[in-house]
Amino acid sequence: MVGLIKACVRVVSRGGGKKQKPSSSTKEEPSPPAYVKVACLLGLRVSPSHRRLGIATALVERAEEWCRERGAAHATMATTTSNAASLALFTGRFGYTPFRRPELLGRPVHAHRLPIPSAHRVFQLPPPLAAAAYARLSPPQATEFLPADMPALLAHKLTLGTFVAVESGPPEPDQSAPPSFAVLSVWDSTRSMRLRVRGARALLRASLAALRALDRGAPWMRVPSVPDIFRPFGAYLLYGLRMSGPAGPALLRSLCHHAHNVARNNPACAVVAADVAPDDPAAAAVPRWRRFSCDEDVWCIKNLNNADDEDGWPAPAVRNCPVRRSPRVLT
Predict the structure, then answer these.
(1) Gene3D superfamilies recorded for this chain (predicted)?
(2) What are the φ and ψ backbone dihedral angles of 175, each rounded to 5 degrees?
(3) Which of 274, 285, 268 is nearest to 240 (CA)?
(4) DSSP state letters, 42-86
(5) Domain of 91?
(6) How many domains, in total, are found in the chain?
(7) Residue 270: closest CA among 175, 206, 189, 199
(8) What angle do CA 112, 265, 272 make, to 5 degrees?
(9) Which of 165, 268, 269, 292 could form a disulfide with 263 if both were Cys (CB 3.0 to 4.6 A apart)?
(10) 3-class DSSP state for residue 294?
(11) Is the separation of the CB atoms in 131 and 150 below 8 Å?
């Protein structure tokens, strides 16, 4: 084997249906919510000894053909700004267009529990109720890349749960919903993806190992030791992040702390991370460590049909996009 690429096709919303063309007797009105089949290409690899032989081009061409055969109207791929070869291949040779720049916000999992204010109450929603909540919070008319199989995703064995945080105390008599809330779901990628940090200096490795030893010997000091990230480790991915109300950011931080505390029970999990849009208000509320975060991701999209896309999709970035089916969750 000298080359590899992976592909899958999903049905997702596109943030609204096609609009009817106005006539002399009718006004332009939006049609019912439109779902579209979107392919995701990922994991393109070519052996170093067989590069510059057209293998990558042949793999992408065959993957796109496979996706077209299964009805995909668009294809997406994800890479990083530093991967010039990948960007040149997809945007130059194959005509993909950059359309999203999500940020991966991560933090390590410590041995100690993170605090959750006593004024915040966290509880878990069963999958059917979680699906109903997301359907109300993120209607397909206003949400891009909302998977049509969202209920199945929330009930999947790798979704560890959907959690809601609200402020403690009785609700006001005239309130049908809390004035502030936050919600997110946790995906366990430790069984499908392994990461590893390479190239660290020996002094850094030794320093982090010493902190772990100190933390084990004197846990009362609550040293924020970092797990051994120089060996293969897994991560928990947060998706469906939503918040509302004046206390929403604080409640979302409490949910992130809760997800961290859940991750402590899994020795294979060393990082908790979330993909968010840079202009998403939730981005400011998600705890992160700079060394465990990345703002180099680039998502590109291509219309696989020969006809022009009358809707003009890809559209400008939409804030109300809480369920981003990134390659990290698609695999």
Answers:
(1) 3.40.630.30
(2) -105, 125
(3) 274
(4) EEEEE-GGGTTSSHHHHHHHHHHHHHHHTT-SEEEEEEETT-HHH
(5) 3-102+296-330
(6) 2
(7) 189
(8) 75
(9) 269
(10) strand
(11) yes
Same-domain status, 307 and 262: no
What Cα–Cα distance (Å) separates residue 66 from each residue in 10, 27, 52, 57, 233? 13, 40, 23, 14, 32
In angstroms, rounded to a whole number, what is the distance separating the alpha carbons of residues 154 and 186?
9
Residues 261 and 308 in one domain: no
Given this model, what pLDDT does residue 176 score? 64
156 with 197, same domain?
Answer: yes
Q: Are residues 137 and 242 in the same domain?
A: yes
Between β-strands 103-108 and 120-125, what pairing exists: parallel, antiparallel or unpaired?
A: unpaired
pTM for this predicted structure: 0.83
- In the chain, the N- to C-terminal Cα span, in Å, equals 21
CATH number at residue 301: 3.40.630.30
All residue ranges of the chain with pLDDT < 50 are 17-23, 32-33, 310, 315-331
pLDDT, tens digit (0-9, with 9 covering 90-100), for 41-70? 988 999 999 988 999 999 999 999 999 999
Tell me the residue length of the chain. Answer: 331
The answer to whether the CB of 255 falls within 8 A of the CB of 163 is yes
3-class secondary structure, 243? strand
Claim to verify: residue 261 and residue 304 sit in the same structural domain: no
Cα–Cα nearest to 42, from 76, 85, 87, 83 = 76
State both tokens at 281: 């208000």
Domain of residue 118, CATH code:
3.40.630
